[in-house]
Structures are given as C-alpha cells and as structure tokens.
User: What shape does this take?
Amino acid sequence: MTGAHARVFGSERARAALPGRIYPYRMIGMGSGALAIAMVLLETGAGPVRWTLCVLTGLAWPHIAYLLARRSASPFHGEQRNLVLDSTIAALWVPLLHFNLLPSVLLLALSAVDKINTDIPGLLRRTVPVSLAALLAGGLATSFAFQPESSTAVILACLPMLLIHTLVVGLGRLRLLRKVVEKNRELDRLGSTDMLTGLGLRRYWEHNAAASLHRFHSRVRPASLILIDIDHFKQVNDRHGHIAGDALLRETGAALRRVLRPGDIAGRYGGDEFAVVCPATGLDEAMSMAERYRAAVEGISLPQAPGLTYSVSIGIAPAQANHTRIEDWIHAADAALYEAKRRGRNRLMVAQGDSMA
Assistant: This one.
C-alpha cells in the first residue's frame, strides 16, 4: 500500500532519501486501505482490538515506519524492512476481515505491486514467507472465519484505495519515463556532440550532410556545404600551448553556433576544421552566413594569447548534380577551401563546377 515508485539507488544520497520518498505514499496507501478495513469491521461488528489495529494501520504505522527508518543505521535497509512489514500487515488483515473478497484481494495485490515498483531486487520474494506466516496467524486467531461477500458499501469504501493507488503509481511511472527520456536525450547529445566546441561530431555531421544531399537529388532543392579551417592554428598551439589552442577552438565553435540559422548543422570535421551543411539554402544565403562568421572570428580575443588576431579560411560548395556521393560534395568544398588558403587566407571561396569564384 505504499505506492512507492521505481527509483535509482546508485548513490548514497538516493539510498538515504528512500524513507522520505515513500513516507507520503505510505500515508496515502495505508489511509485509504484503513477506510476499506473500517467498513468491513463496521459490518461485522468487530470488537475494540481490531478497531485499534485499524487505527494503528491507517494513522500510526506510516509515521512509526518513517521514524524507524530515519533512526536506523542504514535508512535504506531500514525502509526495506518497513516495506516487508507493510506486506505483513496487509496479509494479516485478510483473515481479520474474514476473507472479505474485494478488500482482501486489493490488500494483497496492491502490496505486491508496490514491492515490484520499488525496483529493489528480491524485495517481493522476501515478503512472501512473512506474509504467509501473518495470514496463517490471523487465520488461527479468527478460526479462519470465512465471509467472502463484499457489500456495496464495502465496494465503495475500496474505490479510494484502488483509484488513488492506480493514480499515484501512474504518476510515478510517468515521472520516471520523463527522466528516462531526458537521460536518453542527454546521452544522444553526448554521443553526437564534440564537448570542446559544442558542434556535432564528424560522423553525426556526415550523416546529416548525406541526408541533405539525398534530398537535393530527390527534390532538386538547393543545399550548400561549408568547410572552415582556422588559419595558423598550429602556431597558436606551438607558441602559447594547448590551453590557448583549446580556448581558440571553444571560441570559434561558439562563434559558429551564434551565426547558424535554423536548419543549419555544424560539426567539427577535423582538429581545427569545421563543417556546416545548409539544407534548402541557396548560395547567397550560405555566403552571407559564412561571411558573418569570418568577421566574427576576427573579433575574437583570448586572454591565453593576448595580442593575437585570428581568422578562418572558408570553402563553399553548392550541391551539384554530379555530387553523387557525399565525398564528391566534400571534395568540392575542400578544393574551394584550399584555394582560399592559397590566395592568402582569411577569405571565402566558392566552388562552381570545376572553377572557383
């Protein structure tokens, strides 16, 4: 009846927090269970002992369990003992209710579901022997009185236990699912992003470039590919060390991300080379974006290498019909990049068929 949900207990902090997380669910579960128990006790004319046990179950036990776990040397293991006791209490009530069908089934079933939802290995298995012992002890105490019929009043009293438990478990699983989705997104991002520059990894970028080229051939939509090389990057590393080189890569990567337009996909193509695929983009738009980036790099200033100015050489290749493979497209942009470097760097060149412009 605890309504505990699946948790990740990978850290000591998460393990120590288990009692506090289960505490409100235990109060809700035990409280709604006590309502159904009370209705059966009312119909069967139960004596003060069972009424006292009902009050202890619904009102006192959640608080007692929380205090026991918090004061335990290991709150995590203390809470596991409490979860076993939850099942023991649920099983004990079955014969005390004279095996009234609906509340008995709900007490046993929901208690078992809670143990499964904790995701604590072996917890459900550990509850079985003590639950059977409690059921036997209760049966001996009541001479196994058997009144399985559930009246309309008992059915109505069971509805909060069933509905609240279902709602709480559902919400808990939904929160877990959202966390899993978010973690998967983070893993996808880590698996596709260069951590130094914030740009895509080469394999990720090439996949998107190939997809853009395929769309060009299938729909005859324009697309442009931009290759970028940081001028004299090796000299920055040699003169000022790899810390300065890494700082330059971070800043040039950040500058590129700032000028990208929606739909543009940038990646770190090599050590000091970046690449951008611009789907559904004409040459003029690609040139405009590339020029903004070239100008932005000129404005970079690094405290790790004071006084230095920086620049990039850029080659642009519009997608052509003879670019049947992604390698053909990259080769055209690379040839334009080489020409930009040959003509003095800090400029952009465009590949147009077999010529440069």
Remarks:
- The two ends are 75 Å apart (CA to CA).
- Residues 1-8 have pLDDT under 50 and may be disordered.
